[in-house]
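Sharing a chain and its predicted structure for anyone who wants a worked example. Both blocks are below, sequence first, tokens second.
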Amino acid sequence: MRGKTPAPGPDRSADRTAARSAARSAVAVSVAALITAAALFGALAPKAAALEGPLINNISIALG
């Protein structure tokens, strides 16, 4: 059987399945991290905007 690749045995199949499972887990963790970051940003952004106004006003007063 020169030039032909042997059929994947159970070991190769198991390795591929494990690699796919690990890749899916990594994607799931990444998506969960993005969702968490978006939620935190959404929760903290209004507070940061509220603090920005007085901070800029204080700097203007100090420089003026």
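Comments welcome. The mean pLDDT is 75.
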